[in-house]
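User: Please predict structures.

Assistant: First:
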Amino acid sequence: MSIESADYSSGIDPEHALKYAVQHVRGGRVQIIEGVIEPVSPTWDHEAAADSLRDQIRPRTRELGCVIGCGNLDLPGSPNWYVPGLAVVPAAAAKGAGALLPDQTLLIVEITSESNADTDRVVKRRRYAEYGAPLYLLVDRQQRTLTLFAVPGRLGYTQVTGPLPYGTRLRLPEPFDLDLDTSDW
């Protein structure tokens, strides 16, 4: 039975129950993608890309009073609970939060792997726009490209920069106003 076809006569909200369950999984982190529970286990190559991004944006995020992390993102009203590659969020919003909403972020970054590349390219891009994430950076390790999506709307992002090959500088707009260097990727 899917979340959409669940019987609500028991008084249990299946979306809430599923999201509660994934927050209490022992032995690792998981996310829910369109109702399917998936493990989150980044490779070292994934972590190297995330680390490079953190190093480059950290000074600016501190100036903005933000933190960089990979905390949970809830998409209420949908069967989705995401664990991004990294996100930049206001420190005040992160304090004490179990999960944030995409529109509470300044930037969300997904770094693809063999197992989730299409999810990051299509599903998460659509959902992040739908839920108001202002900037979504897709680091596509398989295609060795970066794509920045900006100005979200219900039908998707209205501004797209890329895909740009690794080695190309990518300008992150306000509030970051900085160039990302991908020459060492």
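Second:
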Amino acid sequence: MNARNQRTTLTPADLRTLFLFEALDDEQLEWLAERGRVETRQGRAPVYSEGEPATCFFVLLGGTVALLRRLHGDDIEVSRTDQVGIYAGATQAYLGDRVDQVYPNTLQAITDVELFVLPADEFAHAIRTWFPMALHLLQGLFFGTRASNTILGERERLVALGSLTAGLTHELNNPAAAAVRATDTLRTRVTGMRHKLALLADGRLDGRRLHELVAMQDAAITRAHAGRSLSAIEASDAEDELADWLEDHGIGLGWDIAPTLVAGGVDVAWLSDATAALGEEHREAAVRWLTYTIDTELLMGEIEDAVTRISGLVDAARQYSQLDRAAQQPVDVHELLDATLVMLQAKIPSGVKVVKHYDRSLPPIPAYGAELNQVWTNLIDNALGAMDGGGTLTLSTRRDGDHAVVEVQDTGHGIPPEIRPRIFEPFFTTKQVGEGTGLGLDISYRIVVNKHHGDIRAHSRPGDTRFEVCLPITPPGG
């Protein structure tokens, strides 16, 4: 090593001993020898760092080096070697300005090392000139793979969007169908109510009695709104008691109208007092008119609930898509999480319990709302898949210094240690062929880290997997 430290160049014969150059002819080796140089680096110092402009191509001549990748702000060692002839650096220089020419990793000198260094533009010239066929193959492989990954990524997002749309359509269809059914029934009830009113007011009932009947109707409506919820057993007992009273007073089909009266909060005591002054000849018509009144109120309540549900779903869809928002603006992460849960409701199995632990003191954070919703979608969808239809999904928020932390936790089988380092790789998946192109974590990582200048971390053991998303509360430089 000491003797080599004195060298500044290599001879063509030296270059031929390196496996990378052993098949080159004498002229090519001479060309490399003239343009390359020998450099040394001290141990524990970086030869180059990830993200810096890729200016040189390096070949190891002696010593030990390690290749590092940056993950969540930490440099993770990927490999370590002392094999003479291994290379790194500007390996994509031949692609020119069609890609960003930066170092994709960090090369760290573990011991003192000696390197053959070739400027990136000279390396690119050699590849283009000496290996034109290989160049075309490499270019086709690189850009073809990137294009196919882009298409697959778009396809995956479209599939996810289709799944969400199907779920939202299903959720909207239920209240919409309920509203249509209630409206149709309401029309029938109003018609019957008009008929009963005509029978009561055809001259056989004086004005005072009619006023008493209207007052009774108003009291029944108030009772219907204020009625307490009954258990199934309590409701059944009340219906049986009321049906017996109706039968005793000569009102036919009491078993048919009793459930409606009970649902409106009417019991035997109240109905007996309310109809006592009307006389036996008007009691049946009055009771049936009351039944129509209560049924009408209950149906209008169903319609109101259905329409409110539809409005809530539409609002959640708007919140999820953020279509009416600026690209980046302060958002409430809790609103985003709740909107995502609504959109994914159809995918949440009945055996999964959803728990929320929100720190409502968190201030709005500057963010791209629609893209954060994509992050929540990926994390929640993966959590649901890990629990196989049963378990607890917990969504938590808290403040950690000048960051807001959103945690998605599941009680599934966990992430095996051997694949944990790869989960943020593009298109990495643990699913079977045909069940998806990836876990969405690469997209999530880029949204959180690259676009929001935050961080995403994973902690996992069987029964407890947590993904923590850390987002700055104030914008960078703010």
